[in-house]
Specification:
The protein has about 120 residues and is an alpha+beta fold. The protein has helices at about 30-50, 100-105; strands at about 20-30, 50-70, 80-95, 115-120.
């Protein structure tokens, strides 16, 4: 029980707007076409909701290299094989309420694309 009477709603007064969060979506994949398609879908969905969007920011590609000998026994001519896996990364920043972020990220995500969503409080 409080000492103050509960607030009564005034007809001309609007209720509080939902809190806006800063959301960072990180996408990683080995396939460029898949990650670009997911980025375009996310951005299109955010712009239809009239949200403030920045990105996709293309981060530097990680190149994981392994160099091995072709010969299994180690004898013979010194011939080498070089294998490489490229990992592409994209960042998208949004300013939106958490309910809207759930609607935006419910799009179909291509196989091989990993999505990481981080929500920061706007201060």
């Amino acid at each position: 029980m409080s000492a103050y009477a509960p607030k009564k709603e005034i007809p001309g007064e609007e209720p509080e707007a939902p809190t806006v969060h800063r959301v960072r979506i990180t996408l990683t994949s080995r396939n460029v076409k898949n990650i670009e398609k997911v980025c375009a879908d996310l951005k299109r969905a955010a712009l239809t909701k009239k949200l403030k969007v920045s990105g996709p920011v293309r981060m530097p590609t990680k190149k994981l290299r392994i160099t091995t000998r072709k010969s299994p026994c180690g004898e013979g001519t010194n011939t080498w094989d070089c294998f490489e896996m490229r990992i592409h990364k994209r960042l998208i920043d949004l300013h939106a309420p958490s309910e809207v972020v759930k609607q935006i990220t419910s799009i179909e995500i291509e196989p091989g694309v990993e999505v990481d969503v981080i929500i920061h409080d706007e201060k």
